[in-house]
Structure formats: structure tokens, C-alpha cells
Amino acid sequence: MKPETEIALETKDLHVFYRDFEAIKGISMEFEKNKITSLIGPSGCGKSTYLRSLNRMNDIIPGAKVTGEIIYQGIDVNKPGIDVFEMRKNIGMVFQRPNPFSKSIYENIAFALKRHGMKNKDELDERVETSLKQAALWDQVKDNLNKSAVALSGGQQQRLCIARAIALRPDILLMDEPASALDPISTAQVEETMLQLKEDYTIVIVTHNMQQASRVSDYTSFFYLGNVIEYDETRKIFTRPKIQMTEDYVSGHFG
Ligand SMILES: Nc1ncnc2c1ncn2[C@@H]1O[C@H](COP(=O)(O)OP(=O)(O)O)[C@@H](O)[C@H]1O
Ligand SMILES: [Mg+2]
């Protein structure tokens, strides 16, 4: 990667084991600030495992072990003794299936803020509003903030989950196939939202949808069997990859 670029997050020799099975086999990779990086590759090759390890979500999986370094703001956040709750405020995650709480739209966002100590009503109101605006949902819900979040459409629910994640003002947003459960119109809205968010956030997204990777991302990393085969600017990966296996995968010859 170009030396003048700013790196938001980096892994060094990251390995992930599920008991005896090595799912990630020593990945060293840098993520550039305010860019979108896609992780692509066939099912089962470790994309979700790698993504989850970036904010220590594998900690809660029995038998999982993550070795190597995850460097965020100069600190290895994979070390013991890291305050994972605080770290996840900076490195947030949006999951594959929209998972709003069965609370009001307002409370979905205010809940985490309160848990992190924000009590002032005006401050909460302001943060709820700006987060919904950033997630491109405000205009649709501003008159119904007390309505149940589960009554929203799938696409709206996912944008609410994005709003909930960004309400904590993270630096980095991890997204695991955030549009795979959505219809094409909702998918387009989520992609549009991501492109707007990149001004303020660094985004790492897992997608099995190659059109999506080429539409939204600046960089693309091709995963295969727990390794990164090729990592480059998205247009290079999709037009002239250096490695034959990448070429075969992006042209639909396997996977
Ligand atoms: N909780 C788990 N326990 C044991 N093995 C797992 C677990 N999660 C994933 N794996 C295995 O790790 C490998 C990578 O899975 P995953 O990261 O989900 O791949 P991808 O997201 O690329 O489809 C697969 O072989 C999968 O079966
Ligand atoms: Mg996955």
C-alpha cells in the first residue's frame, strides 16, 4: 500500500483456531483510513472469522483462539488486558441479519449511548438525530421515533442497525454481508449509505456479491482457505489481478 496513506487498522500474522482447526493462517493486512475494503472469497474460507476477530468477537466463541497482533491507534488490541467494551466503541460491527432490539427506534440508538454513560436528554436527542441522518434513515422515521423498530422494513432495520453502530462514533465499522438478507432496493440504499459513511469512517465489509464489492469498495482482498491470495485496489482485482486464482474467482470460474 502507498506509504503516504493513513492506516486505520492493521493485523500482523493473525491466526485463528477453532480448537485444532486453523481457520485463519497468518494474515497481515492494513486497512486504509476513510476507505471501504471488501473481503471476498468462497464460502467457508474465513472472511467472517477474520472480520470478527478485528473487534474481538471471537472471544465469546468456545474453543476459538486468536494469535497475532491487531494494531489500532498504535496499540495491539488483541493483547490480554484490553478493555474490549471500550474498544468496541471504536471498532463497531453490523451483522448479516438486521438485529434491532424490540424497542422503539429512538431507544435502539439511545440504549448503547446510555450504557456508555450519556444521560443528558438533549445530547441523546441530538446523537439519535445525527446518527439516523448519517444512516440515511432520518427523513423516513423522524415523525415515528417512538414506533417499534421491528415494524420497519428489512432495509430500514439494517440502516437502523448502522445508525446504532455509528451512534457511538466509532472509527471503524465492520460489516458482515450487511445486505445479503435484503431485497435489491434496500441493498442499493445500504450501499448508498456506506458510500456516504466513508467520509467519516473506515469500513471493512465482507460480501459474497462481487458486483457489490466493485460498486462500493476502494480495496478488495481475496480470501481462500484462511489466506489472503491477493489484496489490491478494487479496480485492479476486478480488471487485471496479478494472480490466476483471483482471476478465476472474480470471473466466476470457481467458488
Ligand atoms: N464457531 C465455529 N466453530 C468451529 N468452526 C467454525 C466456526 N465458525 C466458522 N468455522 C469454520 O471456519 C471456517 C471459516 O468460516 P467462516 O469464517 O464463517 O467463512 P466465510 O465467512 O468465508 O464463509 C469454515 O471452515 C467454518 O466451518
Ligand atoms: Mg461469512
Topology:
Elements (H helix, E strand, L loop, with lengths): L6 E12 L2 E12 L3 E5 L6 H8 L9 E9 L2 E2 L7 H7 E4 L10 H11 L5 H14 L3 H4 L12 H13 L5 E5 L7 H14 L4 E5 L3 H7 L2 E6 L2 E7 H6 L4 H7 L5
Helix pairs in contact: 3-4, 3-6, 4-6, 6-7
The chain binds adenosine-5'-diphosphate and magnesium ion.
Describe the structure.
The protein is an alpha/beta fold and 255 residues long. It has one domain (7-250): P-loop containing nucleotide triphosphate hydrolases (Rossmann fold, 3-Layer(aba) Sandwich), CATH 3.40.50. 36% of the residues lie in helices and 26% in strands. It contains 10 helices and 10 strands. The protein has helices at residues 47-54, 84-90, 105-115, 121-134, 138-141, 154-166, 184-197, 210-216, 234-239, 244-250; strands at residues 7-18, 21-32, 36-40, 64-72, 75-76, 91-94, 172-176, 202-206, 219-224, 227-233. Strands 6-7-8-3-9-10 form a 6-stranded mixed beta sheet, with helices on both faces. A hairpin with a 2-residue loop joins strand 1 (7-18) and strand 2. Helix 3 packs parallel to helix 6 (154-166). The longest helix is centred in the middle third of the chain and has 14 residues, at 121-134. The protein is globular, with a radius of gyration of 18 Å. The two termini are 27 Å apart. The mean pLDDT is 94. Bound molecules: adenosine-5'-diphosphate and magnesium ion.
